[in-house]
Amino acid sequence: QVQLQQWGAGLLKPSETLSLTCAVYGGSFNDYYWTWIRQPPGKGLEWIGEINHSEITNYNPSLKSRVTISVDTSKNQFTLKVNSVTAADTGVYYCARSPRLITSSAVTSYKLDFWGQGTLVTVSS
Amino acid sequence: EIVMTQSPATLSLSPGDRATLSCRASQSIGNNLAWYQQKPGQAPRLLIFGASTRPTTIPDKFSGSGSGTEFTLTISSLQSEDFAVYYCQQYNDWPRTFGQGTKVEIK
Fold it and tell me: Which residues of A touch B100 (CB under 8 A)?
């Protein structure tokens, strides 16, 4: 059974760095893209970015200047860092798994089939 | 960026009713669309991918249709556990984007 277990600091001050890690149990780590999504309180879902085992990343342009996603294949873990946080970065952060979709022209991510439990991150002075 | 627009924002229905949720993409995305269900305090759950394919763990009361820019999620007969928020998501291009959600509430 696949499980994604995430952790990280839940309370930050403005200008600090958000850091969350997601550990993957079960399945083949190298066959997937590993994704971060966030959800402000009472609002919808925002895709932050993704990484695969070869460290190929895709980021949301709205956050790209502040976000880094990295991977540690030896531990089956991936990490999200967001620099210079503000109150607007408050919300629940989820990690998720996306299988690879192989088409005639590319290999890409698609459905998000397993999710972590979510971590509430609050940015407040 | 591809903008996903869901309607209605809220759907008030009774148990046993049929629910029809819509999702529109700002440009053609083929069938590169997924639907998720989210209950309060929980992570989203994948319901549909490829616009119309259900994972094996999802009951057949959930069905998806559409292609291009117009998509529909249908729940054939609402049970108490189906009252939740539903999101569509496109994976045709980066950044991946979600609709703003449709809340299905008990009338």
Answer: 44
In terms of residues, how long is chain B? 107
Task: Give the residue carrying structure tokens 């994948």.
Answer: B46
Query: B34: which chain A residues are within 8 Å (Cβ-Cβ)?
Result: 110-112
DSSP-derived 3-state class of residue B35: strand
- pLDDT exceeds cutoff 90 at A106: no
Say yes or no for a CB contact (<8 Å) between A112 and B95.
no
Instruction: Tell me how crowded residue B52 is: count the other CB atoms within 10 A of its CB.
Output: 17
Alpha-helix runs per DSSP H in B1-107: none
pLDDT at A27 over 90: no
Residues A58-90: tens digit of each pLDDT: 999 999 899 999 999 999 999 999 999 999 999
Cβ–Cβ under 8 Å, residues A82 and A89:
yes
Question: With an 8 Å Cβ cutoff, are A58 and B95 in contact?
Answer: yes
Give the model's pLDDT for residue A108.
Answer: 86
Which tokens in the block code for residue A44? 């919808």
